[in-house]
Fold:
Amino acid sequence: MDLLDSLTAKGLRRELPTREEALAVLATSDDELLDVVAAAGRVRRQWFGRRVKLNYLVNLKSGLCPEDCSYCSQRIGSKAEILKYTWLKPDEAAAAARAGVAGGAKRVCLVASGRGPTDRDVERVAETVDAIRAGNEGVEVCACLGLLSDGQATRLREAGVHAYNHNLNTSEDTYGDICTTHTYDDRIDTVKQAQAAGLSACSGLIAGMGESDADLVDVVFSLRELNPDSVPVNFLIPFEGTPLAKEWNLTPQRCLRILAMVRFVCPDVEVRLAGGREVHLRTLQPLALHLVNSIFLGDYLTSEGQAGQADLDMITDAGFTVEGADEATLPAEREAAVTVRRRGAGTDLPPNA
Ligand code: SF4
Structure:
C-alpha cells in the first residue's frame, strides 16, 4: 500500500505526514487493519524498541470540580457515583505511589480535580513529591493540577516535578462543545508555561466524544506543533451521570487506527495508551502495544482498570518488556533535536526577537 510505505518512511525519518495521509489512516478498512498496525509498529520499534513504559495514577483530590468538561465524571453537576475526597495527605499519596512503583511504574502521575491549583495547593504537591521521592529517587513525578498561574510551573520544577500533564483533548473548533468554563487557548497556555519552566510536557487527547476524523487529525497536528514529550490517548469512558454517557462511538478497530495515526504524526514521542483501553479495545489491547510505547498500570482516576498483573502478563505475552527506571524513554535523537525554551514568555528573560 503506497500510503503505508510513505507513512512508514516518514515516521522513520521523523517527518510530518500530510493531513490527507493522516485522514487516510483513519479511513482504512478492517481488511487493511493489520497492515496499518504493522506499518506503525515499525515506526514504534525504530524509536522505542519493544519497551513499554508504565505510569501510575494517584488521584490526589477527587470529584467536586467547578469546571464543566462534559467527558469528566468529576465535573460540576456530575451524577456519576465516583469517590469524592479532598487532598490526600503526602504520606497517603506516597503509599499509593509506592504500590505503583512496586508494580513496575517508572512515572507517578499526581492528579487533582479543579480548575487549577492555588499556591497553597502547589506547596501541598511539593510536600507530596518529597514524600514520594524519599526512598524512590529515580521515580519520575508528573503533576496534573489544571490551569497554572504565573510562577507555579517553576515552583513545581524546583520541587522535583519532572513533567506536567494538561491535555488539549479535542480540536480547537470543537473545544467549546465539550467545555464552557475554560478555553482551548487556556489549555495551550498552561502547556507552554510548563515547557518554559523546563518541565517535560505531557498533552494528549480524548477520542470517542462524537468528533469527526478531521477533528482528530486537527488535535493531533496541534499536539505535534506544541511538541510535548508524551501524548496520552484516552478513549472516552462514557460515565452514567455525565453529558456524554450515551457516546459509545468506538470499536477496537477504530481505536487501533487512531493510535496508528497518532504514531505516524508523532513518531518519536511517548504515545501513551490511557483511559478507556479496556472498555474500548477489549481483547485487541495487545495489538495496541505495537503502536504505543507507554500505558497506565492498574486503575484510572475514577474508574478501575484491569488488574495490574494482567497488564504485566499482557506485555510479556505480546513480546514486549517493561521499561526500566535506568532506561531512557525518549530517543536520544529527539532529546538532541529539541532545545527547551528558557527565555521569553513565562520567564524573566527577554524574548528571542
Ligand atoms: S477541570 Fe479536570 S477535573 Fe474538572 S471537570 Fe475538567 S477534566 Fe474534570
